[in-house]
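User: Show me a protein chain along with its predicted structure.
Assistant: Here is one chain, sequence first, then structure tokens.
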Amino acid sequence: MKAPKWATWIAVIACLPLFSMPWLIADSAPDSNTKTMLSLYPLAVLLGAYCARKAMPERPEVFWILIAVIVLIHAAMWVLVNPLIVTAL
């Protein structure tokens, strides 16, 4: 059974913040842990989107959980690169 087209589009839209990767790398600290996390960031997002799309036909709950995890990964990378913005709040 194949995933519906709308599920594929949601998975693709969830991956769009990956295009901000050059700015994240440019703004990040030269710390090796930050660079390691940023290098694993695209892999985690793309793998999550792939698994979400594959899970959609039989387990739609898992699809939505994985999409939420992808959004949280984006937020975590943003906070990793810009920690002063979060501490100012």
